[in-house]
């Protein structure tokens, strides 16, 4: 057989070069997880494929790239909503995490999120949380592509509870062990996750930067999410968060800033100069009342951007279709201009440009020979997707996410016509309910 997998794509949006061209009746040939052929469909090609899929009326496009997640936090979905941001984070989320987050919590939470990502057509995640080894194990088994940031903060993180005084000093060595284990993995990429400028001292930021330079791994950090963060940075350090990071040498082309809601024009220039990228999380920024990130400005300035959902405690779902829709409309509102951001921009952030912003542009983000076979098929036989005047408009403004029907990552089928192939939802849902009951019981005791 010439191909492990072949797909007849009657409607194909390959996103090659970030262009939104839609092609009719094409063929994609996959071998060893790599797209090796792309061109017009010819009769008989199915006979060259070990496995063959005819898209029928489904749209074929690249798997989506979620630029900012805390996957395990799905277990806190709906736990504490509608609070002020700092009260939510410091009085509710951090204490709960310190007490309850362990490797089991992360395994179950990431399993639930892996189901959700696959169901919504996301094949790549850029995650930052605790118990990174546990997350890596689950995501590897699920067949997803993931960049996993090892947590760094000024205080011990839940992983380090048992380590006492040795917690902080031993971090670089523990990160290095994780790095060594996954450095050559085809889908899992180790990264560094200093939480945010307001939870990381200058020394810690210097330490993370040195590790990033030494191992050439990405750094994933929350930056300028709220006005309060910027105000406090100016009063404590005499400079804005991004200026401080720049002065510490922390901004570089492997630096991914989640949010960037309140970056100034001068800070945008620093991002442009250093090649650092920004991840736009419209649902989370709306829900926590943080503001609207100036994504249009970043992109005009030549700063690469990705799109993210953030964790399910602040969204409350992991659908990039929702993020594309809201994120596009938010820019239109912010600029009082319906052309400020258009459907193709959103699709770019979720595929081609998003992959580039995360340093994965050579692997994924578009469907063309030489890239890994990360792709999704979306059913169009739904009332809200008819008539199909514009594939791009339907995907961004009408699709919800559950129309995704088949998901392939690295050439492997993870969702086959709505059926999970690598995870067992019944077992995962039972585990989620067991943990919910455990949290509910303990919360009842303490209230
Ligand atoms: Zn976040």
Considering the chains and any ligands shown, give keywords for the structure.
4-stranded parallel sheet; alpha/beta; TIM Barrel; Urease, subunit C, domain 1; 22% strand; 447 residues; 38% helix; 17 strands; 9-stranded mixed sheet
What does the model show?
The relative contact order is 0.16. Helices cover 38% and strands 22% of the residues. It is an alpha/beta fold. The protein folds into 2 domains: 3-62 and 365-416, Urease, subunit C, domain 1; 64-357, Metal-dependent hydrolases (TIM Barrel, Alpha-Beta Barrel). It binds zinc ion. Zinc ion binds at residues 68, 70, 222, 258, 310-311.
Number of strands: 17
Class of the largest domain, according to the CATH hierarchy? Alpha Beta
* Spatial separation of the terminal alpha carbons: 64 Å
What value does the Rg take, in angstroms?
21 Å
Portion in beta strands: 15-25%
CATH topology of the largest domain: TIM Barrel
Helix content: 25-40%
Mean pLDDT rating: 96
Strand count, sense and barrel status of the largest sheet are: 9 strands, mixed
What structural class do you assign from the helix and strand content?
alpha/beta
């Amino acid at each position: 057989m010439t191909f492990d997998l072949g797909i007849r794509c009657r409607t194909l949006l390959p996103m090659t070069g970030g262009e939104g061209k839609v092609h009719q009746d094409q063929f994609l040939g996959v071998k060893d997880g790599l797209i090796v052929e792309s061109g017009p469909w010819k009769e008989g090609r199915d006979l060259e494929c070990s496995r063959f899929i005819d898209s029928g009326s489904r749209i074929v496009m690249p798997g989506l790239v979620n630029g900012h997640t805390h996957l395990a936090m799905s277990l806190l979905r709906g736990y504490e909503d509608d609070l002020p941001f700092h009260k939510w984070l410091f009085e509710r989320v951090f204490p709960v995490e310190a007490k309850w987050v362990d490797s089991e919590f992360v395994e179950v939470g990431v399993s639930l999120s892996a189901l959700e990502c696959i169901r919504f057509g996301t094949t790549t995640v850029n995650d930052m949380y605790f118990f990174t080894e546990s997350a890596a194990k689950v995501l590897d088994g699920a067949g997803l592509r993931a960049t996993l940031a090892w947590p760094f903060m000024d205080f011990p993180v839940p992983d380090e509870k048992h380590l006492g005084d040795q917690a902080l000093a031993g971090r670089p060595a523990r990160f290095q062990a994780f790095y060594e284990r996954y450095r050559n993995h085809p889908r899992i990429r180790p990264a560094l996750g200093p939480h945010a400028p307001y939870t990381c001292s200058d020394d810690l930021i210097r330490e993370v930067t040195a590790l990033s330079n030494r191992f050439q791994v990405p750094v994933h950090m929350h930056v300028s999410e709220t006005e309060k963060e910027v105000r406090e940075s100016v009063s404590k350090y005499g400079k804005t968060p991004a200026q401080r990071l720049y002065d510490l040498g922390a901004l570089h082309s492997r630096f991914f800033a989640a949010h960037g809601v309140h970056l100034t024009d001068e800070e945008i220039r620093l991002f442009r100069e250093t090649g650092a990228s920004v991840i736009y999380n419209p649902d989370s920024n709306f829900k926590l009342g943080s503001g609207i990130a100036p994504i249009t400005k970043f992109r005009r300035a030549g700063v690469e951007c990705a799109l993210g959902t953030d964790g399910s405690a602040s969204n409350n779902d992991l659908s990039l279709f929702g993020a594309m829709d809201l994120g596009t409309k938010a820019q239109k509102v912010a600029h009082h201009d319906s052309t400020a951001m258009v459907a193709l921009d959103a699709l770019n952030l979720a595929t081609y440009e998003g992959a580039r912003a995360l340093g994965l542009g050579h692997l994924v983000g578009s469907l063309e020979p030489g890239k890994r076979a990360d792709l999704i098929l979306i059913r169009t036989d739904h009332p809200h997707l008819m008539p199909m005047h514009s594939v791009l408009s339907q995907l961004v403004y009408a699709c919800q996410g559950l129309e995704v029907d088949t998901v392939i990552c690295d050439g492997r089928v993870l969702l086959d016509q709505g059926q999970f192939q690598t995870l067992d939802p019944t077992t995962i849902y039972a585990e989620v309910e067991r943990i919910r009951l455990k949290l509910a019981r303990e919360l009842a005791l303490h209230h």
